């Protein structure tokens, strides 16, 4: 049956671009326009330049050599990044406000990615909690701690969808799914910015990396991105769009080229799409030196050319390159850039500063008593709960939870690793405040019951087995009832520029596992990582695998809570764990193709699969075990037919069939059976975290507006199709319980 597409179900243009300008925004622009009239051209370009201080001197690759303090005094700097010390920030602010001609305050930005002082689990980990409220609150806590440090602006949330765990930056995102990614992106913006940007417990958010940075070819950071516009709009754009709709006031252009043009010089991305279509009205900052790097990309002859391209693309602020301040005035004088454009770019920067309240009181963010804001005990307890909810139980033959009084051999490079557990971006986190697995397990099970040895190094500088490490590990394993083996990848291995072609556990750690296996003791692998990995070997050999990620400041207590059974694991994967690296990209929302695999678990020819390995990943999107068992039954489609524009209603019964209470994440997936374009085999369109006591049942009801079923058609319109849909509800993306509905 051919379906008829109906226009205008959910047209982004309508929802975003026409979003009314608030009174506060109008005021901010009015203020900026007035101020711009007093500014010299050089001062204007000063507002568009962001620098970092290193020993007081900045030498930008754009050829700018300057004494930073005199530049501030001359009004030639609009912003600094990465200032860690509040006194230093306030000193520079005083200089800008009291010694520059117009006294325009500086805006200080920093990478507060998953926490400022209290470090939460890495973002990919946190997304596995599927707890949107908790993620929002974690961002608010980060904002409170940042604002007190005189940091006005975070370079977060990272809204990049990625299906490639070779790309190390997957740790900073929310995984492979655009629907969940959009919910998380919006929650983080709400958390950082709140309802009042000028409050002293909120800061400006920055949507990054615009755009499609997560699709770097071959998983190599900074690499080229190329894809169809349909794919981009369907899979990559939704989280950025959701963050714009949530009101984020800044955006960062990405390093990559996209469809042949570096993002920082792409007027299509930064103006036509971002401003005209999505309705963004804040300012865009480039990624680190990304304007100047357009020379190396091969689209600009020199720094002046690069500045011209970026300015014309409507990129407001040049992070570090120095080309705007070096060549901006000349470009205007030569008629290559109009002063009108410069004024527009400057007003958007000034308006954000105004909305932050910096003109009213430039020092307002540095006034709180830090001891009252940093590491608040209730926030630490919250971080512990978030860490526990983020961890995912991947295998358990019954060894977990551990019995009281059990003797534990705690082994491995990450069992007592206060820095690694904080992950790649550590904000202003102090590793001395980290509570490690060792400390927490000793406290929970008694010091005398926890025998510890590191056995192996893993990190930036030191790697490999420690001399005598395996022997010591085997010795303590033999003296114990169970081995907790903390292996995987270090904090240094995630985040920017740590792409890997090999995503297995390093060989020396596998050797350690093999030696311990020979003792015959039960082995629980505690997997440390910031990315999905190929862990076939560990899953086969261990009796249980708990994915602990880089769980942040409170990772230790969270692990103790889970292995002791005080908390029941409830995390569910938001990124598929591949069976083999050669499968990448492997993700749940793939297409059927004309020749789908007949079995997901058998190698086979003449289908879109492999002749040497299974088609399915090792663990699919949505997967996660618990100490109890949840049964899904009685799926009812309450609206078997629904009008376009209506709401699809589906209910399901979830029963806790086990002996302990637990939380699960009920997930709803759909498939558009006959569409204008090929559609994913399944797409997440709803989820709910629920708590059930032992033996308890609950009916979960999902309401899906048909606008959520819209997608990008070949004419680029965003609309839902009429026709039949399959729907599934269950605890992962393989959920078997199925129903049907039709849109009329
Ligand atoms: C480069 C990274 O790509 C970006 O995410 C970060 O915000 C900036 N550097 C600033 O540190």
Report on the architecture of this protein.
With 744 residues, the chain is α/β, with parallel strands linked by helices. Among the domains are: 2-355, Glycoside hydrolase, family 3, N-terminal domain (TIM Barrel); 628-743, Immunoglobulins (Immunoglobulin-like). Helices cover 29% and strands 19% of the residues. The protein contains 21 helices and 30 strands. The strands form nine sheets. It has a six-stranded mixed beta sheet with strand order 13-20-19-18-14-15, with helices on both faces. Strand 9 (257-258) and strand 10 (261-262) form a beta hairpin. Helix 8 (178-193) runs parallel beside helix 9 (229-245), helix 16 packs across helix 21 (555-564) and helix 17 (437-445) crosses helix 21. The chain starts with 11 loop residues before the first helix and ends with a strand. The structure holds 1-deoxynojirimycin. The site of 1-deoxynojirimycin (NOJ) has 7 residues, from loops.
What is the CA-CA span between the terminal residues?
13 Å
The best one-word shape is: globular
- Secondary-structure class: alpha/beta
Assign the CATH class of the domain at 2-355: Alpha Beta
Give me the CATH superfamily of the domain at 2-355.
Answer: Glycoside hydrolase, family 3, N-terminal domain
Q: How many distinct helices? A: 21
Walk across the major sheet and give the strand order.
13-20-19-18-14-15
The CATH topology of the domain at 2-355 comes to TIM Barrel
Could you give the count of β-strands? 30
Helix content: 25-40%
Work out the strand percent: 15-25%
The largest sheet is: 6 strands, mixed
Quaternary organisation: single chain
- Uncertain residue segments: 1-17
Instruction: Give the C-alpha Rg.
Output: 26 Å
Q: Which CATH-level-2 architecture of the domain at 2-355? A: Alpha-Beta Barrel
Small-molecule components bound: 1-deoxynojirimycin
Mean pLDDT value? 95
């Amino acid at each position: 049956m051919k379906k008829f597409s109906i226009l205008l179900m959910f047209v982004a243009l309508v929802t975003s671009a026409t979003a009314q300008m608030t009174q506060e925004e109008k005021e901010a622009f009015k203020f900026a326009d007035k101020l711009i009239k007093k500014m010299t051209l050089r001062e204007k370009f000063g507002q568009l330049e962001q620098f970092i201080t290193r020993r007081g001197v900045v030498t930008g690759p754009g050829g700018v050599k300057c004494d930073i303090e005199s530049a501030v005094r001359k009004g030639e700097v609009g912003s600094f990044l990465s200032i860690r010390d509040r006194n230093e920030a306030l000193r520079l602010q005083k200089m800008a406000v009291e010694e520059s001609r117009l006294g325009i305050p500086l805006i200080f930005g920093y990478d507060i990615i998953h926490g400022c002082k209290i470090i939460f689990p890495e973002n990919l980990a946190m997304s596995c909690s599927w707890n949107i409220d908790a993620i929002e609150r974690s961002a608010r806590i980060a904002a409170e701690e940042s604002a007190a440090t005189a940091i006005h602006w975070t370079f977060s949330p990272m809204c990049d969808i990625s299906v490639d765990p070779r790309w190390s930056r997957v740790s900073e995102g929310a995984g492979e799914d655009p629907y969940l990614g959009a919910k998380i992106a919006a929650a983080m913006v709400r958390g950082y910015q709140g309802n009042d940007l000028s409050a002293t417990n909120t800061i400006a958010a920055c949507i990054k990396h615009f755009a499609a940075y997560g699709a770097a070819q071959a998983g190599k950071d900074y690499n080229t991105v190329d894809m169809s516009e349909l794919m981009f709009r369907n899979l990559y754009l939704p989280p950025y769009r959701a963050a714009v709709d949530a009101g984020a006031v800044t955006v960062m252009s990405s390093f990559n080229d996209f469809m042949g043009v570096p993002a920082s010089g792409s007027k299509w991305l930064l103006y036509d799409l971002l401003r005209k279509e999505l309705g963004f009205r804040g300012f865009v900052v480039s990624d680190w030196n990304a304007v100047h790097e357009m020379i190396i990309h091969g689209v600009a002859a020199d720094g002046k050319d690069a500045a011209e391209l970026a300015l014309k693309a409507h990129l407001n602020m040049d992070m570090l390159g120095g080309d705007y301040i070096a060549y901006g005035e000349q470009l205007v004088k030569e008629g290559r850039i109009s002063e009108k454009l410069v004024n527009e770019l400057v007003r958007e920067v000034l308006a954000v500063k105004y909305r932050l309240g910096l003109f009213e009181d430039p020092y307002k963010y540095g006034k709180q008593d830090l001891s009252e804001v940093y590491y608040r005990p209730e926030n630490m307890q919250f971080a512990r709960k978030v860490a526990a909810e983020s961890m995912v139980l991947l295998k358990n033959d019954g060894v977990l939870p551990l019995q009281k009084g059990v003797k534990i051999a705690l082994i491995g490079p990450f069992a007592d690793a206060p820095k690694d557990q904080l992950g790649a971006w550590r904000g202003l986190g102090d590793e001395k405040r980290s509570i490690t697995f060792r400390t927490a397990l000793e406290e929970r099970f008694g010091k005398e019951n926890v025998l510890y040895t590191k056995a192996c190094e893993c990190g930036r500088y030191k790697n490999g087995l420690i001399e005598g490490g395996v022997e010591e590990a085997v010795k303590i394993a033999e003296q114990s009832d169970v081995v907790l083996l903390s292996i995987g990848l270090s904090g240094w291995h995630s985040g920017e520029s740590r792409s890997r072609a090999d995503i297995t556990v390093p060989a020396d750690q596998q050797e350690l596992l093999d030696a311990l296996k020979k003792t015959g003791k039960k082995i629980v692998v505690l997997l440390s990582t910031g990315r999905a990995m190929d862990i076939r070997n560990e899953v086969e050999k261990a009796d249980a695998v708990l994915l602990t990620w880089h769980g942040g400041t409170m990772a230790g207590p969270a692990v103790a809570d889970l292995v002791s059974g005080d908390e029941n694991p409830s995390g569910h994967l938001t990124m598929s764990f591949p069976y083999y690296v050669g499968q990448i990209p492997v993700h749940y929302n793939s297409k059927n193709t004309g020749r789908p695999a007949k079995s997901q678990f058998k190698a086979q020819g003449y289908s879109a699969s492999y002749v040497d390995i299974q088609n399915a990943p090792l663990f699919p999107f949505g997967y996660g075990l618990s100490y109890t068992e949840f049964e899904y039954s009685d799926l009812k489609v309450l609206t078997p037919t629904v009008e376009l524009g209506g709401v699809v209603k589906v209910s399901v019964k979830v029963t806790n069939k086990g002996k302990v209470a637990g939380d699960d994440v009920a997930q709803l997936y759909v498939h558009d059976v006959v569409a204008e374009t090929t559609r994913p085999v399944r797409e997440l369109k709803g989820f709910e975290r629920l708590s059930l006591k032992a033996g308890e049942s609950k009916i979960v009801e999902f309401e899906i507006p048909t606008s959520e079923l819209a997608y990008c058609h070949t004419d680029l319109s965003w609309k839902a199709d009429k026709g039949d849909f399959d729907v599934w509800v269950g605890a992962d993306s393989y959920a078997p319980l199925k129903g049907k509905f039709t849109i009329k």
